[in-house]
Amino acid sequence: MKDYSQYDHLKEGDACPLCGQKLVLRHSNHGDFLGCSDYPSCSFLKPVAVSHSVITLGEVGAPCPSCGEPLLVKKGRFGIFIGCSNYPECTYVHNPQESVKITCPVCRKSELHQRTLRSGRVFYACGNFPDCKFSTPGKPVERVCEVCSFPLMFEKKFKRGIGLVCANALCESRKKRKHIIIRPNS
Fold first, then answer.
1. Nearest Cα to 65, choosing from 43, 92, 32?
2. Cα→Cα distances 69→51, 82, 94, 125, 142, Å
3. pLDDT tens digits for 47-91?
4. Do 154 and 138 form a contact (C-beta atoms < 8 A)?
């Protein structure tokens, strides 16, 4: 393991010890680090431990469903969220999941819910996960596919406008890229 102790004095905006360019704070899956702004010409980097503060913006006026303490509106590293005031003893964070009032066409036990990936991309999945793994990459619409008779289609953006695509991954219409345009581009 590299010894970074000789660079402990460095902070964001200081000169890079290798080339003299400005150091900038960067983020990766392995943590935060100071890196040279002249990357890739200069590959200097130094891991840093950054504490991300959470600011309380106000009170929601509702109790936490886990412990009964008041819920607070907070602002953290990834934006505004609602969390328990009893943190760290209670780690409840409100996660709104929009239900589209459409029953899952595969298991028929739960409704489809809006979910968000870490990248921010929105998709809709069965609320009965992990027993049912059905999902669609776009907003589901109750409409029967003309090719395979699957009872659900989803909205997708195309060059010509918003179209409907069969939610059945094995449908021939998806392989032939046939879709129905429901709203043309303006």
1. 92
2. 25, 13, 13, 31, 40
3. 887 666 788 888 888 898 889 899 999 887 767 888 898 888 888
4. yes
pTM comes to 0.51
Token pair for residue 91? 């780690």
Q: Give bridge partners of residue 108 from the DSSP assignment.
A: none
Band of pLDDT at residue 2, cut at 50, 70 and 90: low
Higher pLDDT among residues 91 and 119, named by residue: 91
Strand-pairing partners, residue 82, are: 73
Instruction: Indicate the pairing of strand 55-63 with strand 99-103.
Output: unpaired
- How far apart, in whole angstroms, are the C-alpha atoms of residue 46 and residue 30? 12
Whether the ω angle into residue 70 lies within 30 degrees of 0, i.e. cis, is: no
Nearest to 152 by CA among 184, 107, 120: 107
Exposed / middle / buried, residue 153 (Cβ in 10 Å: 0-12, 13-18, 19+): buried
First to last CA, the chain: 57
